[in-house]
Amino acid sequence: MVLVYAETPNGQLKKAAFEAVSYGKKVAALLGQPCAAITLGTVAAKAGELGKYGAEKVYNIANEQLNHLDSQVAATVMANAAAQLNATVVVLSHSSTGKAIAGRLAVRLNAGLVSGVNSLPELQNGALHVKKSVFSGKAIAEYAISTPVKILSLMGNAIRPEATGAAVDVEALNIEVPTGRINVKSLKTIEGRVPLPEAEIVVSAGRGMKDPSNWGIVEDLAEVLDATTACSRPVADSDWRPHHEHVGQTGIAIRPNLYIAIGISGAIQHLAGVNNSKVIVVINKDPEAPFFKAADYGVVGDLFDVVPRLTESIKKFKASN
Amino acid sequence: MKFLVCIAQTPDTTAKVSFDGDGKAYNSTGVQFIMNPYDEWYALVRACELRETLGGAVTAINVGPATNETTIRKALAIGADEAVRIDAEPSGSAFVARQIAAYAEDKGFDLIFLGKETIDYNGAEVGAMLAEYLDLPFVPLASKLELAGSSATVERDIEGGVEVLECNLPLVVSASKGMAEQRIPNMRGIMMARTKPLQVVQPVDFEEPVEAVRFTLPPVKAGVKLVDPEQMDELVRLLHEEAKVL
User: Fold this and answer.
1) DSSP classification of residue B66
2) Could you tell me if residue A291 is inside a domain?
3) How far is residue B119 from each of residues A135, A169, A230, A248, B45, measured CA to CA in Å?
4) Do A299 and B229 touch (CB under 8 A)?
5) Domain boundaries defined on chain B
6) CA B13 → CA A243, B27, B62, B91, distances in Å?
7) Partner of A153 for a Cys bridge, out of A62, A115, A191, A196, CB 3.0 to 4.6 A?
């Protein structure tokens, strides 16, 4: 069986879980095996909805200790669940949760792990061949896993969740939950839009904005696109924008469908964090800005004119579609 | 307090990425190698800061060939007290984690730091594996860490927020931006690094379970399509009809 760990931050099902189950379903089809999903802790949402994305069975271990992440506890429980259900492949999301668990699970199950995969695997002589982006998007690596149990963690936004089936009943799975050593004290959530790693459209701005008071035009554009805002490193370092908005090599690496870069020159460290974006639009008054080389569409012009004009065009487009 | 910092060596951020003829291995000809920035700027520097206030020793550990010693000496110049090199090609995450665990298991480290991922293979796997081998708690993506006695308070980046947690030592932590500020080694540090102990340890037997089959370069972008700054309706049309992202 292909067992998908469907993460439920704050008891909710998010896009990451739907993506992982959709991916797990396709891996299961490749192997001619069933696909099941598992959720840990108290799940407020209807976990049976995962059936729509391809899980033939959905299991839950409803122990409150699992509501907060302790990688030791979660990996122990997941390893036991995988053994009990005879899982041959375990799929997780390459998220802050998946990164805590996947490596531990690999050690526990003597399994080969490839993390951050971005496409469907192929079966070659019993080995699972799977690809991922390496060197911050500058190369693609193909790995082969031939251990009896295989673990894959899926990069966010790598595949589209597909709801084609029907919801199923949730079955309780009886697995002992050990006591954890990590005590989660609080959660500070960032108000606002979709978190950057999950965002499908990102509007990002850099030093070309000249002053933090000019950010209104960036926020207006983000608003009409229902996009998440981001910024370059110098902007975060001068505290023009909060640090959690910094995308790039040392900040967050993202892979949205559309990345709009405004007044960002495109230093290699910035590109490392964004060049897995599907489509890149660059707006810059300097035609020599290196970012144009990595862009799909470019506008050479004064951002203070171009950005509001683009916002208006999108408004018009949205109104007529 | 005993700190262990795992450092990887990676090609410089600006290095050209290419592979040998059959795509089996990274082509390192003419490439400058550096300490993985997450390991250096965040993990190592925070360990050194804590050692400076709390006392103890920082050990830097690397799995790699003798040519990595320049990178290891830099860790000593930045402030590590001693270094260990496990003399083996780092063939994969599990291999590296197993080697470091074999060294660390009887040394009684209180806090084991590493960067959140390496900038070459972008795995973010070693920390969780190492913690599992050592049966220790693991906190990935930590942007802040304070110690009070034997208890650590850690902030870590999660999607859309920050999680604050407490955990008793010993603990494995992977560091992200915010944990510390980059330190440039000074001349005194560089001089002292030459005489600090660098122990070479033989690897334990372990077969890496994942095989790197080949590396390829991503398809070259078609080139930028320039749109007149007066014609934003046209850009929207292209994004909708051609790129299909609106």
Assistant:
1) G
2) yes
3) 6, 42, 21, 11, 18
4) yes
5) 2-219
6) 21, 15, 19, 21
7) A115
Whole-model pTM?
0.95
Q: Does A139 touch chain B (CB under 8 A)?
A: yes
Radius of gyration of chain A (CA): 21
User: Do the Cβ atoms of A248 and A264 come closer than 8 Å?
Assistant: no
Same domain, A229 and A130: no
CA quadruple A243, A8, A191, A240: dihedral, nearest 10: 10
User: Residue A295's domain spans which residues?
Assistant: 196-320
My answer on whether A254 and A144 are in the same domain is no
* Last-in-domain residue among A172, A207, A239: A172
CB within 8 Å: A183 and B167: yes
- pLDDT tens string A6-60: 999 989 999 999 999 999 999 999 999 999 999 999 987 789 999 999 999 999 9
Question: Chain B: residue nearest A147 by CA?
Answer: B209
Q: What's the order of all strands across the beta sheet hosting B138-148? A: A182-189, B161-168, B151-158, B138-148, B171-175, B111-115, B2-6, B57-63, B82-86, B198-201
CA distance A215 to A263: 12
E-assigned strand segments in B138-183: 138-148, 151-158, 161-168, 171-175
ipTM score for this prediction: 0.95
Does B200 touch chain A if contact means CB atoms closer than 8 Å? Answer: no
Identify whether residues A39 and A137 lie together within a single domain. yes
Do A201 and A167 share a structural domain? no
Q: Is residue A162 part of a domain?
A: yes
Contacts of B226 in chain A (CB under 8 A): 297-300
d(CA B149, CA B91): 37
- Output DSSP code: residue A180: P
* pLDDT 10s digits, B202-234: 999 999 999 999 999 998 888 999 999 999 999
CATH of the domain at A230: 3.40.50.1220
φ, ψ (nearest 5 deg) of residue B162: -130, 130
A203, A194 contact by CB (below 8 A): no
Smallest Cβ–Cβ distance between B212 and the set A137, A143, A188 belongs to A143
DSSP A247: B
Three-class secondary structure of residue B117 per DSSP: coil
Collapsing DSSP to helix, strand or coil, A183 comes out as strand
